[in-house]
């Protein structure tokens, strides 16, 4: 099998500011999303870009605009409680935009019907929230449609309808979505949008409060940069089809998404679970059969990363390239792009039973949560790799592992914690548990997954953000703070990165290729 071209599997999703060349595609998108409502005119969108280009966002998927949102800044106290959409937007032109305003007012969000379910709307809302934090804004306010209200208009008032939606007795595609994204209902406004017949012209006035808002200044001070991580302690059990494997994987990604995770980490070679699909007793032949599922594996994880809006380290998988077998960990970014890290140090067991070959490139990956590195199991036991990764900007090192006894597990754990201390970096380990009774060389598993920190006052007492119970099917969820890490590196009790005696020693990489991968 030749080396795979990963670009054929990528589904690139980009959130960016709207440009002038996007105006016509956005007008077309609105006619698709809201066929019964009066669409934007070109003059409206040009005015948005003239007055507040930073507040206009779109989502581009595979080169096509599939979502957009518009907004402006206001001092909301200056507007009447029962204002209309025309009042707050100056009839759609936002010439009333106030650069010194304290509230970001959202006036439009739309997502192409064929792309709903991929969390396009959530990405747009997150872009607004990030803008509000960057600009030190007090809150985000929106006038939200209630498009299912016309089905209940004869049965209840709009206020009662909103209450029923909030109590989850009724589903409304817009109001339910906004509540799930942290917005609270302030009141219900009548005659908000005259052409919104589905909402019977009503709208919910909703607000998201910026907890980082500093009322004494317009400057933004970053006090925290939390990143949420889910480490999956994956249960190895016999399966009968690839679809069973896919359902088990999606369950964990769904859990990570429900927790609001930025990253989900799966264990090393957990795809050997696929060996239970065929009765092959010779390990070297079984591993080659697993490689036949490489494209299915990549397509599955690419889809899940985009669908659930989570960056996934897909454990690792055996891949055949030019008739050689490699142990490769893949990074599936939530924007649809893919990267990979070859295992550098191959264990004696991998060589003996499966004939696994070693990689020769150490990579550091750029993500929407900063730079990370991946070290597959045995690799974390060699400190030079972590030192390089941190020198290149990595703040988190993910270590998928697979061990069959407590001694092997402790080698991984102790070394991961040592890397966290000596490099002032976060480390995360995730392993497999359970057993595959019909698979040679994958008999039993031992794991206790965890998230670790440096050891200093700024972090958890024992340097442990979270850890699982040993040998149970579960996940570990925890937050690491990149801003706390940055400050600790500068002013911690000890500063290993600064205090290295470079006048006495240094690390030289010989035939090893090193690379920093930017996410463009």
From TrEMBL:
A Pfam family: CN_hydrolase
The CN hydrolase domain, residue ranges: 227-482
InterPro entries: Acyl_CoA_acyltransferase, C-N_Hydrolase, C-N_Hydrolase_sf, GNAT_dom, UPF0012_CS
Lineage: superkingdom: Bacteria
Molecular function terms, GO-annotated: acyltransferase activity, transferring groups other than amino-acyl groups; hydrolase activity
Domain N-acetyltransferase intervals: 13-211
Keyword entries, A-Z: Hydrolase
UniProt key word Ribosomal protein: no
Family, similarity comment: Belongs to the carbon-nitrogen hydrolase superfamily. NIT1/NIT2 family.
Listed PANTHER family: HYDROLASE YHCX (PTHR23088:SF50), NITRILASE-RELATED (PTHR23088)
Listed name of the protein: Carbon-nitrogen hydrolase
Naturally occurring in which organism (per UniProt): Pontibacillus chungwhensis BH030062
């Amino acid at each position: 099998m030749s080396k795979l071209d990963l670009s054929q599997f990528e589904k690139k999703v980009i959130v960016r500011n709207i440009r002038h060349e996007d105006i016509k595609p956005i007008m077309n998108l609105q006619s698709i999303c809201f066929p019964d409502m009066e669409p934007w005119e070109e003059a409206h969108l040009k005015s948005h870009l003239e007055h507040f280009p930073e507040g206009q966002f779109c989502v581009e998927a595979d080169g096509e605009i599939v979502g957009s949102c518009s907004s402006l800044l206001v001092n909301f106290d200056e507007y009447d409680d029962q204002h209309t959409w025309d009042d707050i937007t100056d009839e759609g032109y936002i010439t009333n935009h106030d650069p010194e305003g304290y509230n970001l007012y959202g006036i439009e969000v739309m997502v192409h019907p064929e792309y709903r379910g991929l969390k396009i709307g959530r990405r747009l809302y997150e872009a607004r929230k990030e803008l509000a934090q960057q600009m030190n804004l007090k809150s985000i306010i929106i006038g939200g449609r209630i498009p299912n209200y016309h089905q209940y208009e004869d049965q209840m008032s709009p206020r009662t309808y909103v209450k029923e939606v909030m109590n989850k007795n009724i589903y409304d595609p817009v109001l339910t979505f906004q509540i799930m994204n942290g917005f609270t209902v302030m009141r219900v406004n009548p005659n908000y949008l005259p052409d919104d017949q589905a909402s019977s012209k009503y709208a919910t006035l909703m607000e998201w409060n910026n907890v980082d808002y500093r009322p004494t200044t317009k400057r933004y001070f970053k006090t925290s940069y939390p990143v949420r991580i889910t480490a999956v302690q994956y249960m190895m059990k016999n399966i009968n089809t690839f679809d069973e494997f896919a359902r088990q994987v999606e369950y964990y990604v769904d859990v990570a998404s429900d927790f609001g995770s930025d990253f989900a980490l799966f264990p090393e070679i957990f795809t050997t679970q696929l060996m239970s699909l065929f009765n092959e007793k010779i390990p070297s032949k079984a591993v080659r059969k697993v490689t036949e599922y490489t494209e299915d594996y990549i397509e599955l994880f690419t889809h899940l990363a985009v669908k659930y809006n989570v960056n996934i380290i897909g454990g690792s998988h055996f891949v055949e390239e030019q008739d050689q077998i490699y142990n490769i960990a893949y990074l599936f970014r939530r924007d649809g792009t893919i990267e990979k890290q070859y295992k550098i140090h191959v264990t004696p067991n991998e060589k003996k039973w499966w004939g696994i070959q070693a990689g020769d490139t150490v990579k550091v990956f750029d993500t929407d949560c900063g730079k990370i590195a991946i070290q597959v199991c045995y690799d974390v036991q060699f400190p030079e790799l972590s030192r390089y990764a941190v020198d290149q900007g990595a703040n988190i090192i993910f270590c998928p592992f697979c061990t069959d006894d407590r001694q092997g597990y402790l080698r991984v754990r102790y070394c991961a914690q040592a890397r966290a201390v000596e490099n002032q970096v976060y480390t995360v380990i995730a392993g497999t548990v359970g057993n595959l009774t019909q698979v040679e060389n994958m008999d039993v598993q031992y794991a206790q997954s965890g998230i670790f920190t440096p050891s200093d006052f700024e972090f958890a007492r024992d340097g442990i953000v979270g850890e699982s119970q040993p040998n149970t099917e579960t996940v570990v969820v925890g937050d690491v703070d990149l801003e706390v890490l940055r400050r600790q590196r500068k002013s911690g009790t000890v500063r290993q990165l600064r205090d290295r005696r470079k006048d006495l020693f240094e690390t030289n990489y010989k035939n090893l290729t090193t690379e920093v991968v930017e996410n463009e």
